[in-house]
Amino acid sequence: MATVDDDLNQLDKDIRALKIEYDQYFGGGRKRPPKDTQWRIDQAIKRYSERGAQMNFGQRFRFNNLTQTYAKYNEMWRKRLQEKEEGVVQRHYGAAARAIQAERAKEHKEELAAAAGPSGAEAARAARQPGYAAAFSDPERESEKVKELYQVLVEAKQKAGERTDALTLDNFQTFVRQKTQQLRDKGANQVEYAVTMEDGQVKLKARVKS
Q1: pLDDT for residue 71
Q2: Rounded to whole angstroms, how far apart are CA atoms 206 and 193?
Q3: Which domain, by its residues, includes 53?
Q4: In a domain, 68, yes or no
Q5: What is the pTM of this model?
């Protein structure tokens, strides 16, 4: 029987596959939109939206990221379908998207450069950019660091336009405590948590430090 993690892995694969299928459709490689794959994803999201209590914090965090990614893709596909139906051809879409990403990256570097001076308010703002990391050996005794990590994650997700209503401090503290203990049981002296930006999505990654 498939586990929650198995289903989330499959949902991730289906969303990636659907994006490829839509790219093929808009590029002329498919005759019809991939409605079957989209229906399967919609059903999986609906099923787990109704079973949120069965997921732990890490699983809910990943599920929320997947649904937010899917919602953004859906909005993009809806607009392109409308343009296709109306006979509007959007040229150089990929180039435009890359230009937007390049501009955001430039703004991010400028913010970091502006905060490179003495410690204080500017340094604090730099710490809140995606790329912030904090290491823990005992989160129970490092509650302030956990709160800081939580605040960085929430602010990064809000800045990226992601929802954070399901991300509470209590659940986050529980997740960090359990995950750190799990990795320490496997021999890690410390566990580093990094807030990163990947494919336009804010991620929280745990890394073992010897």
Answers
A1: 92
A2: 5
A3: 1-90
A4: yes
A5: 0.44
* Distance set, CA 175 to CA 147, 150, 182 (Å): 12, 11, 10
Residue 172 lies in a domain: no
146 in a structural domain: no
Query: Is there a domain that residue 76 lies in?
Result: yes
Q: Residue ranges of the alpha helices (H) in the chain?
A: 4-26, 35-49, 57-85, 93-114, 121-127, 143-159, 169-184
Q: What are 80-90's pLDDT values in tens digits?
A: 888 877 775 44
**Per-residue pLDDT for 33 more than 70?**
yes
Pairs from 95-101 (Cβ < 8 Å, separation ≥ 24): 101/200
Residue with tokens 């204080």: 120
- The C-alpha atoms of residue 46 and residue 104 are separated, in whole angstroms, by 33
| Contact assessment for residue 149 and residue 176, using Cβ atoms and an 8 Å cutoff | yes
Maximal CA-CA distance, the chain? 61
Report d(CA 67, CA 49) in Å as an integer: 10
Domain count for the chain = 1
